[in-house]
UniProtKB/TrEMBL annotation:
Residue stretches spanning the membrane: none
Classification of source organism: Bacteria, Bacillati, Bacillota, Bacilli, Bacillales
InterPro entries named in the record: ANL_N_sf, CapK_Type1_Caps_Biosynth, CHP02304_F390_synth-rel
PANTHER family for the chain: CAPSULAR POLYSACCHARIDE BIOSYNTHESIS PROTEIN
Protein's name according to its UniProt entry: Adenylate cyclase
Superkingdom of this protein's organism: Bacteria
Length: 447
C-alpha cells in the first residue's frame, strides 16, 4: 500500500476542500467531471459508443444531459465498461471463490474484486485499483475518525464480506479487524471483549445485537464512535443503540457505486459531493423524496457517470448547523423495490406508498414495539411480524388502526393484515423492515 496516497487524500478531504458556497462546489465538480470524461472516453469502449450521439454535450461539458445508466447496463456491458480489460467471467470466478473460502485477498494485478449484496435482485461486481483504495481509505478516515490520523484506534468492522478495499485503512496506529457476519455470536462476543474496539462499524441489526449484549454484560466495551452501515437505519434502532452506548450513532452510505455519504459532527448525513456529483430524480419534490443519479469523479477503473441508483433518499429542508454546503439528507428511506402499492378506491388504478409512510404508521401504533417487519405479499395482503413488551393483542389492534388510517388517507383500498411471530435474527443478509415481496411492479404500475 502506498501510504502517501492515503495521507494526501486524508489531508485534502479533512482540510483542503472547504467550499465557501454551493457555486464554488459546483465549479469544482465541473472541472473534475470534465477531466474524468476525457479519461473515460479514451479508455472505456462502452462509454465511447454510448456517447456517440452526444458530441455537443461532451464538447460543451454539459454532462448533466448525458444518457443515464444503471446497474443492469453496467453489468451487461462489464467487459467493455471497465477501463482495465477485466472480463466478467474471470471477475466472477475470483469473487465467488472468495465468498466460498472467506479469503478476500485475491486480486487481478492491482485490482481488488468484490460482489455487491444484490438486495435489489441483481448482484453487481465492483473493481477497485490499489490507488483508488488508498484514496477511498484517506477519505473515509478523514470523515469518520473521531481524532487525527496519528491517534491509535481499534476498528471492528462487521460485514457480509471483506475486501482488500476495507483493510486499506489499517496502518501502524490503526488496527482493523473484520468480523464476518457468517460467524456465530459466541465468536463475535469473544473477539469483541479481546479487541475492545474504539470504533465499531456494522449494520444496525448487528449494532442492536451488540447493544443487547452490552446490557446483558456479555460484552464490556466502550467504543468512542459507532457507525451504522449497509442497512436502512430505523429510528427504533437508532434510539436504542444511542441509549445503551450513550453517544450519537453515526452513519455511512456506502455501496458498490462509491463512498456516497457520511454524518457530520452534528449527526446529519451529508452526501460526499467532494467525491460524487448528485442529481435528483424526484418522486415527490414537495416532500424532498428523490432517487439519486450519481457521477463519481474519483474512480477510473469502473467509471460511474450519470448512474441511477435504486435507493430512495429524503433531503433535509433545514440547513445543518455544521455549515457544510454538501447536500444534507433527512434519511435513507429504502429502495424503489420496496414501495408499497394499493388499489385506489376510485377508478381502480394503483397508488404508491413510500417506505417511510409504513415505518411511521408502525411507530405511531405503539411505544411497546421492540422489533417489526412489514411485508406486502400482494395488493390485498400485508404481513406484519412484531416483537413487543406488552399485550400483543392490544398492539396488533393499534397497528391495524394505523395501517387502515394510512391507506384511507391515501384513498386506497385497505388490505388484509396478517400477523406472524417475529422470528428474525441478524445474519449476513441485509435486514429490511419494510419489504415488498410482490413480483412485477414498477413506478406504481403493475406489469
Amino acid at each position: 500500500m502506498n501510504k502517501l496516497n492515503l495521507v494526501k487524500q486524508y489531508v485534502l478531504t479533512k482540510y483542503g476542500r472547504r467550499f465557501s458556497s454551493k457555486e464554488e462546489l459546483q465549479r469544482f465538480q465541473q472541472q473534475k467531471i470534465k477531466k474524468q470524461l476525457s479519461f473515460v472516453l479514451r479508455h472505456s469502449a462502452f462509454y465511447r459508443e454510448f456517447y456517440e450521439d452526444f458530441q455537443n454535450e461532451l464538447q460543451e461539458n454539459h454532462w448533466e444531459s448525458l444518457p443515464i445508466i444503471d446497474k443492469s447496463i453496467m453489468m451487461n456491458h462489464f467487459d467493455d465498461f471497465n477501463t482495465v480489460g477485466i472480463k466478467m467471467k474471470r471477475a466472477l470466478e475470483i469473487a465467488f471463490e472468495a465468498e466460498r473460502t472467506r479469503d478476500f485477498t485475491a486480486k487481478i494485478a492491482d485490482i481488488s474484486i468484490g460482489l455487491s449484496s444484490g438486495t435489489s435482485g441483481n448482484r453487481g461486481v465492483f473493481l477497485v485499483s490499489d490507488k483508488e483504495a488508498e484514496m477511498w481509505a484517506g477519505a473515509v478516515l478523514a470523515k469518520l475518525l473521531p481524532g487525527s490520523l496519528i491517534e491509535k484506534q481499534k476498528i471492528a468492522f462487521f460485514l457480509r464480506a471483506n475486501n482488500n478495499l476495507y483493510s486499506t485503512t489499517e496502518n501502524g496506529r490503526i488496527t482493523f479487524q473484520f468480523f464476518d457476519l457468517l460467524d456465530d455470536f459466541s465468536t463475535h462476543i469473544h473477539r469483541l471483549n479481546e479487541l475492545k474496539p474504539t470504533i465499531i462499524i456494522a449494520p444496525p441489526s448487528m449494532l442492536r445485537k451488540l447493544a443487547e449484549w452490552q446490557i446483558e454484560d456479555k460484552i464490556l466495551i466502550r467504543p468512542i464512535k459507532i457507525v451504522s452501515v449497509a442497512e436502512v437505519l430505523e429510528d427504533l434502532d437508532k434510539r436504542f443503540i444511542e441509549k445503551v452506548f450513550q453517544q450519537t450513532l453515526h452513519q455511512v452510505y456506502q455501496c458498490t457505486e462509491g463512498f456516497l455519504a457520511a454524518t457530520c459532527s452534528h449527526g446529519t448525513l451529508h452526501m460526499n459531493e467532494d467525491l460524487v456529483a448528485v442529481q435528483k430524480e424526484y418522486l415527490d419534490e414537495e416532500k424532498g423524496i428523490f432517487v439519486p443519479i450519481l457521477t463519481d469523479f474519483t474512480r477510473t477503473t469502473q467509471p460511474i457517470i450519470r448512474y441511477r441508483l435504486n435507493d430512495i433518499l429524503i433531503e433535509r429542508k433545514a440547513p445543518c448547523p455544521c455549515g457544510s454546503h454538501f447536500l444534507a439528507l433527512e434519511r435513507i428511506d429504502g429502495r424503489c423495490d420496496d414501495l408499497f402499492y394499493g388499489f385506489k378506491k376510485v377508478g381502480g388504478d394503483v397508488g404508491v406508498l413510500f417506505p417511510d409512510f409504513i415505518r411511521r404508521a408502525i411507530m405511531l401504533a405503539s411505544d411497546h414495539i421492540l422489533e417489526y417487519k412489514v411485508t406486502q405479499k400482494d395488493l390485498k395482503t400485508i404481513e406484519v411480524k412484531l416483537k413487543v413488551n406488552a399485550s400483543s393483542e392490544t398492539v396488533k389492534e393499534a397497528v391495524i388502526s394505523e395501517i387502515t388510517k394510512l391507506w384511507n388517507q391515501n384513498r386506497l383500498v385497505v388490505p388484509d393484515i396478517h400477523f406472524l411471530p417475529y422470528d428474525l435474527i441478524p445474519s449476513d443478509k441485509k435486514r429490511k423492515r419494510i419489504e415488498n415481496a410482490m413480483r412485477g411492479h414498477f413506478d406504481g404500475k403493475i406489469v
